[in-house]
Specification:
There is one protein chain. By secondary structure, the chain is an alpha/beta fold. The protein is built from 19 helices and 8 strands. The strands form 2 sheets. A 4-stranded parallel sheet has the order 2-1-3-4, sandwiched between helices. Strand 1, helix 9 and strand 2 form a beta-alpha-beta unit. The longest helix has 40 residues.
Length: 480
């Protein structure tokens, strides 16, 4: 049989009509697959193991059965339960679900490739889950997925002849109809092959251009045509970025100390540099003692190999349990000869600076944890008129005590005959309300963070009187 161009032009409108249906089914199926695949990928990341396993089983089932069987089921079986779909709709849904399960794996790989730090950054900036996905995760995950997704959609285009099984008049079905009625197969079947080849080649070229576009974007991030020159000389350097350096060693769970020191201590002369050490609640003498081995390593991490003007260890109850001298020795093992401040030693100096011998004490701890602190102050010659504790065991809860509640408990804890009140614990936000409490009591109040801030400022040579922060910040630092 010879090739007949006249016959080709005669059947071309019919073939083009079939091509239009093929392209429409592919585009609609690709949209369904893209959306459905993304939903599956997100569902497979569910923290609920039942949902994750069910979605995984469904995807494996769809990928493990032929597309033709799925199309038959959607078009011929669903009507038995009252769900009737047109051939085109059934075909689009079948293609979309089938290739959506493959797209889901591409999405999952792209999402897993987003660095964990990006997720943590989204949480740190208080983005909602929806905002994190839309603005952080998907913009980074989708571009690398495009080549793999495009390959699946090209494969979907070439699978559309299967739709003829459910009487969709796509390209292949139209060609078969023409061939069967004219008994000429060479022209319609060949033209179908040409159409599929041309569309596939166009898709491949478009895919390559898309890949090159993203490659050029990456290259622009790494290279530039701008000429870069070295300056004519090296810059002059200050001895230090700031004149004084205060190192803070705080607990991993601490919400308060860093904020208090930025508010009361840090300024244009004094920098505050923080390191955190491991700590696990509850607040008990045994858990407090477990921090001792971490002190030297924690101190070493603060501006390594550079001198500090003072280091403050921010845990009042642990300072009692471990001991002021032992803490000093552990810190100086990493930072030799640096002055070391503990909340307990600073509180003692602060109480002496305000002229207090008889004191009342308020702590957020349990009786068990408070007892060593009462013994500590008594051993240093203070007469304790009243000692009140709140019974908390988690330092994160201690940081959540409101300013109003701190003020109420402070007023209740102060014995009339006492000369000053000490509010213990660096987690408690007492330093912010010391002026308010002093006004109500008419007597000096010393808190853990107020005492350490005062001590660090004075050691760094800051002698400014700041009565707005409390009576203690008007006092000089006693020697010895």
């Amino acid at each position: 049989m010879e090739w007949d161009w006249a016959f080709v032009w005669q059947i071309m409108p019919t073939l083009l009509e079939g091509l239009k249906i093929t392209i429409l089914a592919t585009v609609l199926g690709a949209i369904v697959a893209a959306v459905f695949g993304l939903v599956l990928a997100i569902a497979r990341r569910s923290t609920n193991p039942v949902i994750a396993r069910l979605v995984g089983f469904f995807a494996d089932f769809i990928r493990g059965t032929p597309l033709l069987v799925q199309l038959y089921f959607i078009f011929y079986v669903l009507p038995d339960i009252g769900i009737r779909l047109s051939p085109l709709v059934a075909g689009v849904i079948g293609l979309g679900i089938h290739y959506g399960t493959y797209a889901a794996e591409v999405y999952r790989a792209g999402i897993d490739n987003v660095p964990r730090g990006q997720w943590e950054a989204a949480r740190a900036t208080n983005l909602s889950v929806r905002q994190a996905w839309i603005h952080v995760v998907l913009p980074q995950a989708i571009p690398p997925m495009i080549p793999a997704l495009a390959n699946y959609f090209i494969a979907m285009f070439k699978e559309t002849p299967l739709l003829s099984a459910i009487t969709v008049l796509e390209l292949m079905n139209q060609a078969k109809s023409v061939a069967n009625s004219s008994y000429r197969y060479i022209e319609p079947i060949t033209m179908v092959g040409v159409f599929f080849l041309v569309i596939s080649l166009i898709s491949v070229v478009a895919l390559r251009l898309l890949e090159e576009r993203y490659a050029r974007v990456d290259e622009r991030c790494l290279t530039t045509d701008i000429r870069i020159e070295m300056a004519s000389r090296a810059p002059g350097l200050d001895d230090r970025p700031l004149a004084k350096r205060i190192g803070l060693i705080i607990l991993a769970t601490d919400h308060t100390t860093e904020v208090d020191f930025q508010r009361m201590v840090a300024n244009e002369r004094i920098g505050v540099y923080v390191t955190r050490i491991p700590y696990a609640n509850p607040v008990t003498p045994e858990n407090l003692m477990k921090m001792r081995p971490s002190l030297t390593a924690g101190a070493a991490l603060i501006l390594p190999n550079e001198p500090l003007d003072v280091v403050m260890y921010s845990c009042t109850s642990a300072s009692v349990v471990i001991g002021d001298l032992q803490i000093e020795a552990a810190v100086q093992a990493a930072k030799p000869d640096v002055p070391v401040v503990t909340p307990t030693a600073a509180a003692v100096r602060g109480l002496k600076a305000v002229g207090a011998k008889r004191i009342s004490v308020l702590t957020p701890y349990t009786v068990e944890t408070s007892r060593p602190m009462a013994a500590y102050f008594a051993s240093l010659g203070f007469e304790i008129d009243r000692f009140t504790c709140l019974g908390l065991t988690d330092d994160r809860d201690m940081a959540r005590i409101s300013h109003d509640e701190i003020t109420v408990f402070a007023n209740e804890a102060m014995a009339p005959e006492s000369e000053a009140l000490f509010i213990s614990c660096t987690a408690v936000r007492a330093a912010e309300v010391v002026p308010r409490i002093e006004k109500a009591l008419g007597k000096p109040v010393v808190s853990s963070n107020l005492a350490t801030a005062w001590a660090c400022l004075r050691i760094c040579g800051d002698t400014a009187s700041r009565p707005e922060l409390g009576n203690l910040l008007t006092k000089p630092y006693p020697e010895g």
